[in-house]
Design a protein that fits this description.
Elements: E1 5-7, H1 12-20, E2 25-27, H2 34-44, H3 48-66, E3 71-81, E4 84-86, H4 92-102, E5 106-117, E6 120-133, H5 138-148, E7 169-173, H6 176-180, H7 184-193
Parallel strand pairs: 1-2, 1-3
Antiparallel strand pairs: 3-4, 3-5, 5-6, 6-7
Helix pairs in contact: 2-3, 4-5
Length: 199
Amino acid sequence: MTEKLILASGSPFRKAMLENAGVPVDAIPADLDERALEAPLAESGATPEEVALVLAEAKAVAVSEEHPGRLVLGCDQTLSLGDEVFHKPDDMEGARRHLLKLSGKTHQLNSAVVLVRDGETLWRHVAIASLTMRALDPAFIGRHLARVGKKALSSVGAYQIEGEGIQLFDKVEGDHFTIVGLPLLPVLKELRQLGAIDG
């Protein structure tokens, strides 16, 4: 029997990935101040992977407490360039600065997923993708951002690899699902093991 999963995220991409894979899902975003949760982690020296896991788990636990008995999937993704963790840019100038900083370098996308029921964590996982951005001319960055517009503000790297953002890259190592923010194959495997989907 297939159990209806709760996705503790408002991401339409994550919801669509699960539905396209045949997983029935209710999207109920967690109401958390992520930056407030993240601040002590940064001070403690937590890795970008650990930050993503803590945030994913906090989201899943918060939603789980409001929906007893339901299986909840929490997700979070951090972008790291060395020790620096990037957040979604606040405005187009922030997006421009992100792309200038990432230009010609390899960064990591750290996609964390956590499954929780009744406030208890059942499973956690982090998948990592490495992306090498080509050296970008500042004038090209300006033209690119003018074309993609506010979409640049919806992602930590100021790009959507599933759209025109793919033109920014020389090399991508990691699966598409991890890059878009939900390592789908490990999630499906764990849902089968938990008996939540037919396996």
